[in-house]
Each structure stands twice: as structure tokens, then as C-alpha cells.
Design a protein that fits this description.
Blueprint (H helix, E strand, L loop, with lengths): L3 H13 L8 H12 L5 H11 L5 H26 L3 E2 L2 E2 L1 H5 L1 H19 L4 H30 L5 H26 L4 H28 L2 H4 L5 H4 L5 H9 L2 H10 L5 H14 L2 H21 L9 H11 L4
Antiparallel strand pairs: 1-2
Length: 322
């Protein structure tokens, strides 16, 4: 069984060896740029780890891993446009560097490139792989749409929020794992168990991100702590507070939504979170989904040592500080 670091190194080498056409340069250069910015390569690593549970041949699953990583980076280009974000991984975003129209078109081509990677898979699993990939990609787009709609909705339930992050974030982790399992010849039940593991891990991962945004160490988190509070983002913490707070505190919360003193705004909202013990409630919710993830992995009918690296990676993801 390969370690996550070994897999990430193999993915990095494979990404660097992808050959894109030279012309039109402004179409393909943004793709080379975004793909070279690195990142943790967690999603393709999960694809290879899932495949490695059933087959030690990394080369067989690498096209699926590259398809997942290419699709993920495609979504980042378009997300950055929608969020009007100036930076991605500390560098200029594609639309800032090449313009919005160019970024949209380069992103579109990345979806094509992802399908080209999938076309390299063996014919006997190609149909199943395409079905998994397309369902995953569609789910991510649905999640992004819901996220945008939530910005305009006054009332969002916690169940609605969990479903949104399931689609926007978690289905990609689940799909990445299911795809790896399918490529390596797993049974349908085994592939579904790994999907369940990845999806629940993804929900727990996003809930952890919500917590880090408020309670993380700014020197380790890598971005401004309290960013979600500043943006009035409907996270689990805010929705839980709205559910539990009395009418007077709800009025205080409403006043803070328009507070231009950002430091004061962050401090006031965190005081309300602390009053209602929102942090503990959010941690419990995160643990609920992490427990579901680990249960799905434990129930997978494989030797425990075969799954040990996957357990370790999941624990690292859920105990991160950034």
C-alpha cells in the first residue's frame, strides 16, 4: 500500500507530464498555470488510494486520478470568477491574469481534458467510470448553484446547508474514491462503501473548515479568520445560532450583519457563538459525519492493514489546522 505522500508525488509527476497543445496559447497557458499551482492533490490521491486497496498497479488508475484533479481545478477557475477572488493558493487567479472570458473558455476546455483522461481507461470499465464521473460533476455544479442561491435566501435550514456542502464538496471526494475502486475491479458494493466513506469524510471536512474559519489559528489557517462572519455566510455555526438564540440576541445578530467595523463584527458574533456553545455543537455534528465515514471504511471487507494508510489520511484531514 502506498503512502499519501508517495501518491501525491506520483500525481505531481503525472500532472507535470500532461501535454497540452501549444496553440492557441491563451487558451492552454491558463490550464498549465492552474494545474501547476499544486495544492494538496487530496482528491486524486484518494482515487489512487481507493484503487490501491484492490490493485497495486498505479498506472492503471492514474487516468482516473488526473480526470478528478483536472475537473477539480476547472471548478476552481469558475468558482474564482463567481467569487471575484483575486488570489488562488497565493497566486493571481486565472481570470485576474487572463481576463474573465479567457478564464471561462479555458475552464470549459479543462472539462474536455478531464474526459480525455477518462477515455484512456480500459473499455470494460469505461461506461461505469463515465457514469460515476458525470454524476459527480453534475452534483458539484448543483452544489455551487445552491450555494449561490443561499446568499439571497433569508431562511436556510441546517438540513439544506448539509445537503449543499454534500453536493459542492463531499460528492467529489466520494466520486473520486468510487472511481478508483471501479478502475481497480472492486465489486459494486465495495465501490459504494468507499463512496459513502468519501462523501461523509467530505461533509466532515467542510464542517471542520467552518470551525477553522472562526476558531483557527490565523498563522496556520492561511486566510483571514472570521471571513465567513464578515461575508454573512450561512455556515452551520450561524444557522445553529439562529436556531437557538433568543429574540434579543437575534436582533443583535441582525445588527452585526451591517457592521462596517469588521473586527467588532467578528468579536460580537463569536461572543454569541460562545454564549450558545455553538463550537461544541458544530464539533459534535462534524464528529457525526466523521464517525459515519470511518464506519463505512471499517465495514469494507478487506484486511485492516490494507486500509491503514486510508485511515491515517482521513485522520490527518480531520485534524488539520489549515
Amino acid at each position: 500500500m502506498y503512502t499519501p505522500n508517495q501518491l501525491q508525488e506520483a500525481i505531481e509527476n503525472a500532472v507535470q507530464n500532461i501535454k497540452y497543445p501549444a496553440h492557441p496559447e491563451r487558451l492552454y497557458e491558463p490550464i498549465r498555470y492552474i494545474m501547476s499551482l499544486g495544492g494538496k492533490r487530496i482528491r486524486p490521491a484518494l482515487t489512487l488510494m481507493a484503487a490501491g486497496l484492490f490493485d497495486d498497479n498505479l498506472d492503471k488508475a492514474m487516468p482516473a486520478a488526473l480526470a478528478i484533479e483536472t475537473f477539480h481545478n476547472f471548478t476552481l477557475i469558475h468558482d474564482d470568477i463567481m467569487d471575484n477572488a483575486p488570489l488562488r493558493r497565493g497566486k493571481q487567479t486565472v481570470h485576474e491574469k487572463w481576463g474573465v472570458n479567457n478564464a471561462i473558455l479555458s475552464g470549459d476546455v479543462m472539462m474536455v481534458e478531464a474526459n480525455k483522461h477518462l477515455s484512456e481507461l480500459d473499455n470494460n470499465i469505461l461506461k461505469a467510470a463515465l457514469h460515476t464521473f458525470n454524476a459527480t460533476a453534475q452534483g458539484v455544479c448543483e452544489g455551487q448553484q445552491l450555494d449561490m442561491e443561499f446568499e439571497e435566501q433569508e431562511t436556510v435550514s441546517i438540513a439544506d446547508y448539509i445537503n449543499m456542502i454534500r453536493l459542492k464538496t463531499a460528492v467529489l471526494l466520494g466520486g473520486a474514491m468510487k472511481l478508483g475502486a471501479q478502475v481497480a475491479g472492486a465489486t459494486e458494493q465495495q465501490a459504494e462503501q468507499l463512496y459513502e466513506f468519501g462523501e461523509n469524510l467530505g461533509i466532515a471536512y467542510q464542517l471542520q473548515d467552518d470551525l477553522l474559519d472562526v476558531y483557527g489559528d490565523p498563522n496556520k489557517f492561511g486566510k483571514q479568520v472570521g471571513g465567513d462572519i464578515i461575508a454573512n455566510k450561512k455556515t452551520l455555526l450561524l444557522l445553529k445560532l439562529r436556531e437557538l438564540a433568543n429574540s434579543l440576541d437575534l436582533e443583535k445578530l441582525a445588527i452585526q450583519s451591517d457592521n462596517k467595523d469588521l473586527t467588532e463584527k467578528i468579536n460580537h458574533v463569536i461572543d454569541l457563538y460562545d454564549k450558545y456553545d455553538i463550537r461544541s455543537l458544530a464539533i459534535a455534528e462534524m464528529k457525526n459525519y466523521s464517525d459515519k465515514a470511518f464506519h463505512a471504511l471499517e465495514s469494507l471487507d478487506l484486511a485492516k492493514e490494507r486500509k491503514s494508510e486510508l485511515f491515517k489520511l482521513a485522520e490527518q484531514i480531520l485534524n488539520r489546522e489549515h
